[in-house]
Amino acid sequence: MLHKKKEHPKEKTRLHKRNKHRGRYDFKQLIESCPDLAQFVKLNVYGDESIDFANPQAVKMLNKALLKYYYDIDKWDIPQNYLCPPIPGRADYIHHISDILGSCNYGKIPTGPKIKCLDVGIGANCVYPIIGVKEYGWSFVGAEIDPGAVASANKIIDSNPVLKGNVEVRMQHQPNDIFFGIIQKNERFDLTVCNPPFHASLAEAQAGTLRKLSNLNKEQIEDPVLNFGGQSTELWCKGGEERFIEDMIRQSKLFSSNCFWFSTAVAKQSHLKNIYLALEKAEAVEVRTIPMGQGNKSSRIVAWTFFTPEDKKQWINTRWNETV
């Protein structure tokens, strides 16, 4: 039975103005680009073409099609049970963070491989580097504590010429270290990005998944199938998101001259208070909070730097001159 037709806005106006995913998914184009998607596309109860977002296979195939159509990634796959991130939200982060770099450079966003970005927790999916390389030509180092994710990300890089030579994955052998063991002594990064583990325990992660699936299905679900996947290290850590970000801030101070802007996604607004306190304690010179939103979900990026205006000027003159 069809329900009354839903009126959809033509554009997802909460997404960044440069985000390629502001329009509704064009399944005809996506299926042309990735024929395997066709089997998952059905008319929903409103008579619109869609996929079942509670089905991990369907979500993965949609990602495959989006990455191929919009980002020229011909070969992309992730092992079973690894995180399959929503591409529009990840693209939003990259566009917003590029604006921060541009704001330090008279509004001109620096592009090209000289702009070096560290992805803390690159995951098996390699999505932040894919978007950053395609949209701005940046180069990336991805840090990761899970050997399975390292192998998967390397496979994606090796299988796509657009990424080869522009993205390097480094194994973090000490799970409590975020920058130590990854950033080399005299290495410089223009920015860091991170999607921290959200939950504080496996049980909490599973409960969150059940809530999300029940909302998607409009009925009570008792089996926590992860529609976007996710290994333990991707979904939870001791102390959850708040503790992870506070640790990252504390450790970032020790690398204050190695990186121009540090940043992280913050899913929960209630965590901001303690994050700001940690930044104050670390003596960050400037802090920015950028709101993001997709559908009914609100989130944000918190970015910080230890550079004074004079330091920034010097950094730009020595590192970006030839890139802008």
Structure described in brief:
The chain is an alpha/beta fold and 324 residues long.
Estimate what percentage of residues fall within beta strands.
15-25%
What overall geometry do the principal axes of the alpha carbons give? globular
Backbone structural class:
alpha/beta
Q: Strand order across the biggest sheet?
A: 5-4-3-6-7-9-8
Could you tell me the CATH topology label. Rossmann fold
Report on this model:
With 324 residues, this protein is of the alpha/beta class. It has one domain (79-319): 3-Layer(aba) Sandwich (Rossmann fold). The protein contains ten helices and nine strands. Strands 5-4-3-6-7-9-8 form a seven-stranded mixed beta sheet, with helices on both faces. Strand 1 (42-43) and strand 2 form a beta hairpin. Helix 1 crosses helix 2 (56-71), helix 3 (87-103) crosses helix 4 (127-136) and helix 8 runs parallel beside helix 9 (272-281). The chain starts with 26 loop residues before the first helix and ends in a 5-residue tail after the last helix.
Considering the chains and any ligands shown, give keywords for the structure:
two-stranded antiparallel ribbon; 324 residues; 9 strands; Rossmann fold; alpha/beta
Topology diagram in text:
Blueprint: H1 27-33, E1 42-43, E2 49-50, H2 56-71, H3 87-103, E3 116-120, H4 127-136, E4 139-144, H5 147-159, E5 167-171, E6 189-194, H6 202-217, H7 232-235, H8 240-252, E7 259-266, H9 272-281, E8 286-294, E9 297-305, H10 309-319
Parallel strand pairs: 3-4, 3-6, 4-5, 6-7
Antiparallel strand pairs: 1-2, 7-9, 8-9
